[in-house]
Amino acid sequence: MHELLQQIFSGLAAGAVYASVALALVMIYRATDLVNFAQGEMAMFSTYIAWSLVTVGLPFWAAFLITLAASFIGGMAIERIIIRPVENAPVLAAVIVTIGLGLIFNSLAGWIYSYTVQDFPSPFPDRPLFGALITTQELGVIGVTLVMLLLLFLFFRFTKTGLAMRAAAQNPLSARLCGIPVGRMLAIGWGLAAAIGATAGIMVAPVLFLDPYMMSGVLLYAFAGALLGGISSPVGALVGGVIVGITENLVGTYLIPTQLKLTVALALIILVLVFRPNGLFGTAVVHRV
Amino acid sequence: MTKGISIVSPDKVAADRYAGLSTDAWRWLGTAVLIGLVVLLPFRLSNYHVFELTMVMIYAIAVLGLNILTGYNGQISLGHGGFFAVGAYTAAILMHHYAVPYWATLPVAALICFVLGVLFGLPALRFEGPYLALVTLAMAVATPQVLKYFDNWTGGQQGLNLVKPQPPPALGLDRDRWLYFIALIVLLVAIRVAVNMLHGRTGRAFVAIRDHPIAAAAMGIDTARYKTLAFGTSTLFTGVAGALSAIIIGFVAPESFTLFLSISFLVGSAIGGIATISGAIVGGIFIQFVPNLANDISDAAPSAIYGVAMLLFMYAMPHGVVGTLGPLLARSVPRIQARWPALIGK
Q1: Labelling B217: which of A153, B22, B150, B279 has CA 20 to 30 A away?
Q2: Which ipTM value was assigned to this complex?
């Protein structure tokens, strides 16, 4: 029982990271109908920025905030410079552009920081809590994710920009007619997604250790989580991410050898999707004839 | 019928003739010249370049399979690397464990991949867009893990070594050129089959389902049947390509069939032109040569160059090389003819 709870809590911590990345994916998908395959690599690159700031000697939280700001600006720039030219192109062209972007970030990170695995400092002392049920690291990750979610909720619920962003995502044409600069809202969306990804990367780096391939597995689980919850639903992304995190941990511990962990986790998710093809929280798309 | 009345006006007939030849004749001439070039080419190139061209053709077959599914039927797949692997391992296991001759493995791989594709296509009927992408992605991710797990059959991590086929002595060809011609024949057959299928009733059904599933169903097209058929045919092509790759490389290992391979197929498909047949060849060329070229340009960050190439191609030609240049060419020929009649005379 104790071990089971332990596994559930560490699944919860991993799930918080998947949920964050899933949320970033959903934000971009809602605004542009595009799955951003570069999300993981963008987060990885942000994590390297944080790492170099910490290595230079900055305190952890200062490096964290600077990285978030840099990622936000970087995300906006990516939307403006890289994604904008394929805005009206076929969806597949845009997908290929995000795949190319991911390759570029991966390669740049390897070139600048080398492919050697780096230790990433954790802001939380690694200490077991509550009779070894959960470590401070895990609790910290869950806490930071919750704070981030709260801030995002407040932003989207109570600020004018947040409202404008929701409008732009829901109905770009009407939003533009109301005087909302839809293009700028998209850029802000990409900026926010990049910052959310950066948070996830920094939170997961002390556990996974930092190298240019750190986020590829995370992106996969996040993608699965986003779809499990329903790609059009932010709440679904969070729930889906957490479910994936816990399932992955339990499956890997109790059911099967670790080398098949990913396969079985994905198979389970697909099984759920066969019965709920639009995800747990997604709404069925109604086609007009 | 009265003599002298033709349904096509004389003007129209004249307009379809360039430099005294009809468009059909031009097409045949072009095809003949192209096939002539492709047959002669390997005798002017080094063994390594011949091998590279053989791989181009194999990738072209795989991309053609993906084009049928994603381009013509609108179902995205990130898992074709998995079906490529199934084809490759079918050939490898048959050759290694049962000493089946290499040519006999191709139809077996085709059959297995077709059945697997149809089975996979059935649940895929329920998924659209990113959901289908995830389901197929899972296939691509699972493949290397599953291959490593059943190591009695697959040789696990080490993979299987195969004996490369010997050319029939009567032909006087060396092995690389013989393999080149095998791939060429399979590619030509694949293109012929794809043309027949896609330019006929089945192809129209595929496209109708892609463009408007509800309207297609209302017109009496059995969408479920055609969607699974598209899946099966698509994986058949890709599986045959996989089997060929095993025969030609003479080696299979799980690490050759990662997610990156599936993504490469999608990239090749998009860059060649997603709903085109000849685009598959452009895609094959891109997959085979651009990563190597990127390596030559920059040792430090080759994938960055590869990524930039992908970006630039998509910016310049969002519908792919053939998808963008083809219509452009078709539009410009009559214009050129109108402006400079001497250049392409009537």
Answers
A1: B279
A2: 0.85
